[in-house]
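Here is the promised in-class demo. Please do not try to memorize the tokens; focus on the logic of going from shape to residues.
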């Protein structure tokens, strides 16, 4: 039996794009694809809707990540200042 493909830091297979987050998949599918459909292929409107939905989701995800990083750095700086002010005994 061969070894499985090596995994990256997040457990995703190296060389492949990571799977989309389930919440994004569900939300965009619910928003853009009707529950009952006859054609197995996406219509142009559905495809455009999905593209926009995914783009918005990823944009918000990136913005939130940046904001959380910024807040974390501010907290670390505040903690350092507090420790310097009280840590000289």
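The designed amino acids, position by position:
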């Amino acid at each position: 039996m061969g070894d499985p493909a090596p995994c990256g830091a997040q457990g995703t297979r190296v060389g492949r794009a990571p799977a989309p987050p389930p919440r994004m998949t569900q939300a965009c599918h619910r928003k853009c694809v009707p529950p009952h459909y006859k054609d197995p292929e996406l219509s142009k409107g559905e495809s455009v809707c999905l593209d926009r939905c995914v783009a918005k989701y990823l944009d918000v995800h990136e913005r939130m990540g940046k904001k959380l990083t910024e807040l974390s750095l501010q907290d670390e700086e505040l903690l350092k200042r507090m420790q310097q002010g009280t840590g000289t005994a």
